[in-house]
Design goal:
The chain is mainly alpha-helical. The chain has five helices and no strands. It has one domain.
Length: about 120
């Protein structure tokens, strides 16, 4: 039996903005810890991380329309991009508010797998 999905009221622009800014700040702080080494050791990875981080920030805007798809995609980005981690966190939390437990578990497994690949 599927539990009813709770109603998500529309976000205001201010509500959307502070969430995006916080996710960007979190991702940026994490990225700053790895960016110098990426740039020194693998410039390609540096630019890929940056590109995926920017793309993740754009994709997270659609997290309420396609919560599972966006959360899984951003969890996969976590294998390569530290900058995308803030957007992935926001997408995961947004998905968790729906309380569909198998979806939350799926994104958790994908996130752990991506984390293992990023080592």
């Amino acid at each position: 039996m599927q539990l009813p999905v709770p109603y998500n009221p529309p976000l205001t622009r201010r509500g959307q903005l502070w969430r995006i800014l916080l996710a960007t700040l979190i991702g940026g702080l994490i990225w700053l810890t790895v960016a110098p080494a990426q740039l020194r050791e693998s410039p390609t990875l540096f630019w890929l991380d940056l590109a995926l981080g920017v793309l993740a920030t754009g994709l997270v805007l659609f997290r309420r329309r396609w919560p599972l798809a966006i959360a899984v995609i951003l969890a996969c980005f976590g294998a390569v991009s530290a900058l995308a981690s803030g957007a992935g966190l926001l997408a995961g939390v947004s998905l968790a508010t729906r309380r569909v437990y198998w979806q939350i578990a799926l994104v958790g497994v994908v996130s752990v797998g991506a984390g293992q690949l990023s080592r």
